[in-house]
Amino acid sequence: RASVDVPLSVAACATDLLRLMHDLAGKSNAYLRSDLAIAAVLAEATARSAAWNVNINVPQLPVAADREKVTQQTRDLVAHAKQLAAEVETACV
After folding, report:
1. What percent of the chain has pLDDT over 70?
2. Chain mean pLDDT for the chain
3. What is the enclosing helix (H) or strand (E) of 47?
4. Helices 33-57 and 2-24, axial angle in degrees (round to 10)
5. pLDDT tens for residues 30-72?
6. Are 89 and 41 in contact, with CB atoms under 8 Å apart?
7. Is the pTM of this model over 0.85?
8. Are 91 and 32 in contact (CB under 8 A)?
9. pLDDT at residue 28, rounded to an integer
C-alpha cells in the first residue's frame, strides 16, 4: 500500500504547491516571473513523475475498488496539475 500511497501524496503535494503558485501569478515581482513559471513546470513534472510510480504499483493492490479509486485520484491530480501549471505559465508571459 505504501508503494502507492507515498507517490500519491507526492502528487497531491505538488498539486497543492501549484495552487499556491497560481495564487501568486500576476502578483509577484515582474523580475521573478520566469522563476515562478519554472517552479510551475517542475511541480507539474513532480506530479506526473509521481503518477508513474502510482500507476506501476497500483495493480498490486488486492482490492479492485481501491485500484480504481487510486487510479482515478491520480488522473485527477495530474490533470489539475497540468491545468494549473499551464495557467501559471500563461500568467507569467
Report:
1. 100
2. 97
3. helix 33-57
4. 160
5. 999 999 999 999 999 999 999 999 999 999 999 999 999 999 9
6. yes
7. yes
8. no
9. 86
**Contact 70/5 with Cβ under 8 angstroms?**
no
The three three-digit cell numbers of residue 50, written as one number = 509521481
- What residue has cell string 513523475? 49
CA dihedral over 40, 42, 46, 47, signed as positive or negative: positive
Which has the closest alpha carbon to 4: 66, 78, 58, 71?
58
**Cell numbers found for residue 14:** 505538488
Q: Which of 40, 38, 50 is nearest to 77 (CA)?
A: 50
Which cell numbers in the block locate residue 60? 498490486
Query: Where would I find the H helices in the chain?
Result: 2-24, 33-57, 64-92
